[in-house]
């Protein structure tokens, strides 16, 4: 019988990193939504670790935050290690 891949839990570190950058830049969820073309409700779900966004969405959020994607990924990875 083939083994089934388990669904990984949402990456809470990514949501936390997005929230930290957003708050550092004093952006509301609505402002980030406008800048990144991602809905405010979807950003909230990501920040709370309820969903895993696609790389395309992560890239749009990084651009909306004005940070390099690598910086966002590095901070997220640091939070995952906590």
Q: What keyword list fits this structure?
A:
82 residues; 434 Repressor (Amino-terminal Domain)
Write down how many β-strands occur, each being a DSSP E stretch of 2 or more residues: 0
If you consult CATH, what is the topology?
A: 434 Repressor (Amino-terminal Domain)
Mean pLDDT: 89
The CATH superfamily name is lambda repressor-like DNA-binding domains
H-E order = HHHHH
Q: Please tell me how large the radius of gyration is.
A: 13 Å
Global shape: globular
Walk me through what this model shows.
The protein is mostly helical and about 80 residues long. The protein has one domain (about 10-80): Orthogonal Bundle (434 Repressor (Amino-terminal Domain)), CATH 1.10.260. It contains five helices and no strands. It has helices at about 10-25, 30-35, 40-45, 55-65, 70-80. Helix 2 (about 30-35) crosses helix 4. The mean pLDDT is about 90.
Topology (SSEs and partners):
Blueprint: H1 12-24, H2 29-36, H3 40-47, H4 55-65, H5 69-81
What is the compact description of this entry?
With 82 residues, the chain is mainly α. Helix content is 65%, strand content 0%.
